[in-house]
């Protein structure tokens, strides 16, 4: 029997000095992803950077219309839509018609905003995305969330608002992984239940069968240092769709030193992973459910091979089918 896989995509521009263009980072690669999914009779969930949608509607209406059309296409093809938020869009400025940069990254982590700001950013972004989904169907309900930069802790800062807007599923956890470059970026998922998904109430890392939320973590694998080096060399040759620059980097020399280990954890993703390294890890994993993550902006020709491989060799399921 084929193993199960859930395909998740984060639909967004770059979040660093140059956002890149909507065409190259979102529309073109996503069109090809949608075609590939359709060919394989498969579908996934697209987490839409909805705070960006708010900015886009205000500053570039023609771009907004194209992005909106593509979100409707995702839905028409049977895909799901989830809420994704990068709060530092509030510090963005336009550098040309559909290209932005950021004055500051202080608000990269939603928890750096005050209570009122967190509430309004979540509600306004949700409202914008919901408006589009309701155009597809009055009955469509957005019930899934992935925090920008995976920063969902402490959950108490967002819990009540997420509940109020109808979020049930959280996809923000990367089991075993952690990052600390506070105040800008932080998550610590070192200790997570060793399960494909679980219910929780106040803390995504603590199972609670009476909780209102369900955590569906991204599947993480370990690459040994030789695979990492091999992979790095291979992906250097690939050209990706996106024409922007990644989020700010805080990795100095000591950060890098800390990262050097025999095994390094990677999310199951086609972003920056060669086909052979990805497939080898998929074959070797003992997980009964794989939750894959990818960003259209990072898609290369190799990423399409990985997506094709997943669709042909795994049973692609919808997240609602598991619980
Ligand atoms: Zn994101």
UniProtKB/TrEMBL annotation:
<feature type="domain" description="NodB homology">
    <location>
        <begin position="3"/>
        <end position="241"/>
    </location>
</feature>
<dbReference type="GO" id="GO:0016810">
    <property type="term" value="F:hydrolase activity, acting on carbon-nitrogen (but not peptide) bonds"/>
</dbReference>
<dbReference type="InterPro" id="IPR002509">
    <property type="entry name" value="NODB_dom"/>
</dbReference>
<dbReference type="InterPro" id="IPR011330">
    <property type="entry name" value="Glyco_hydro/deAcase_b/a-brl"/>
</dbReference>
<protein>
    <recommendedName>
        <fullName>NodB homology domain-containing protein</fullName>
    </recommendedName>
</protein>
<dbReference type="GO" id="GO:0005975">
    <property type="term" value="P:carbohydrate metabolic process"/>
</dbReference>
